[in-house]
């Protein structure tokens, strides 16, 4: 590092690049270990049926409880996992953990109400892993029906190889899972192609939803996506609902599900189970 100051050639090593590379390197090494040591967790954010106000399921969101850094956001470690290939074992872990949790909650609550959990699939994971076989393995190991899982994909999964992606989606539908297009509206939207895919739900990105009452353009985008979904026979979930006013507006526009801090933040598994039990009790009263 001293030499870095002396010659231009070594300057590279004192640059931000190196910092970033080292940071990434240690994150990657740590992440590999985290998977082995069970430092990853899933938190669960409620999805609310806007018409009835009832709980309609949860989205599983990965968290890394790092021994030194504390809770690391998936926005920081999912890209590292994608670049290193760790997304394959990580993605399998998420599928298994979510499936096992569904089975546990259904057993503990002793109810015949189905519990549904959405799991995020990365585009890189879809390219690198045999995701249908990973899903099949996870649901069989947990003893749940595929219908309990919703798999969230992003448009980026379809850019390079739409035909290949369709084959994968068809295989996932054959397992009886539900498919959702996540962050809809932020990416490359080939509408002609969307119609050919077996997608059940469009998830409207938070960047359009949160300020839709103040921002006319965003309100127009949200309402256009809702019409499109309705025309294509798809359900809708709006994410990033932070106020009752936005919740009411979306209900009026016919959006199926709502997700956001207004209802609940992502909860630990225990807190999510409490949320579920409380809702179930009020539903039967
Ligand atoms: P996403 O799938 O679009 O998930 C929604 C994100 O919005 C979550 O962030 C959630 O905490 C946040 N959110 C929900 N409601 C509100 C709200 O009202 N206000 C605000 N400000 N934020 C809200 P999170 O948990 O940080 O996850 C970020 C992204 O990381 C996810 O975006 C998803 O793309 C990715 N991710 C999370 N878990 C996994 C995973 O297990 N596998 C993969 N491949 N990606 C994951
Ligand atoms: Mg998602
Ligand atoms: Mg989303
Ligand atoms: Mg999003």
**Overall shape:** globular
Low-confidence stretches: 1-12
Order of helices and strands: HHHEEEHHEHHEHHEHEHHEHEH
Class per helix and strand makeup: alpha/beta
How many helices in DSSP terms? 14
Protein name: Bifunctional diguanylate cyclase/phosphodiesterase
Note down, in words, how this protein is organized.
This is Bifunctional diguanylate cyclase/phosphodiesterase. It comes from Sphingorhabdus buctiana. The protein is globular and about 50 Å long. The longest helix has 23 residues, at 87-109. The chain has an eight-stranded mixed barrel, surrounded by five helices. Helix 5 runs parallel beside helix 7 (131-142). The protein has helices spanning 3-6, 11-14, 16-37, 74-84, 87-109, 123-128, 131-142, 156-159, 162-174, 191-194, 206-209, 216-232, 244-252, 269-284; strands spanning 40-49, 55-66, 70-72, 117-120, 149-153, 178-184, 201-204, 235-239, 257-259. The model is unreliable at 1-12 (pLDDT under 50). It is built from 14 helices and nine strands. A hairpin with a 3-residue loop joins strand 2 and strand 3. It has 285 residues and is an alpha/beta fold. Bound molecules: ligand C2E and magnesium ion (3 copies). Ligand C2E is lined by residues 45, 61-62, 73-75, 78, 94, 120, 122, 152, 182-183, 206, 239-242, 259-261, 266. Residues 182-183, 203, 239 line the site of one magnesium ion.
């Amino acid at each position: 590092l001293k030499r870095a100051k002396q010659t231009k050639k070594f300057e590279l090593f004192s640059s931000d690049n190196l910092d970033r590379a080292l940071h990434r390197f240690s994150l990657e090494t740590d992440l590999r270990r985290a998977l082995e040591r069970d430092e990853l967790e899933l938190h669960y954010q409620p999805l609310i049926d806007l018409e009835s106000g009832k709980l309609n399921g949860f989205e599983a969101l990965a968290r890394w409880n790092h021994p030194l850094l504390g809770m690391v956001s998936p926005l920081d470690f999912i890209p590292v996992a994608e670049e290193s290939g760790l997304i394959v074992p990580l993605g399998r872990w998420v599928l298994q953990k979510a499936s096992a949790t569904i089975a546990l909650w259904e057993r503990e609550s002793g109810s015949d109400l189905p519990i549904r959990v959405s799991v995020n699939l990365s585009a890189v994971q879809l390219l690198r892993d045999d995701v249908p076989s990973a899903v099949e393995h996870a649901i069989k190991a947990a003893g749940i029906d595929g219908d309990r899982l919703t798999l969230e994909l992003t448009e980026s999964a379809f850019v390079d190889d739409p035909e290949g992606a369709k084959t994968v989606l068809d295989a996932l539908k054959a397992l009886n899972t539900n498919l959702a297009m996540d962050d809809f509206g932020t990416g490359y939207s080939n509408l002609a192609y969307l119609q050919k895919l077996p997608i059940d739900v469009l998830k409207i990105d938070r960047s359009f939803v949160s300020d839709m009452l103040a921002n006319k353009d965003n309100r127009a985008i949200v309402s256009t996506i809702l019409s499109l979904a309705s025309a294509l026979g798809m359900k809708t979930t709006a994410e990033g609902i932070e106020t009752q006013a936005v919740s009411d507006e979306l209900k009026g526009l016919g959006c199926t599900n709502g997700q956001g801090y207004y209802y609940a933040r992502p909860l630990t598994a225990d807190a999510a189970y409490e949320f579920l039990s409380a809702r179930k009790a009020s539903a039967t009263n």
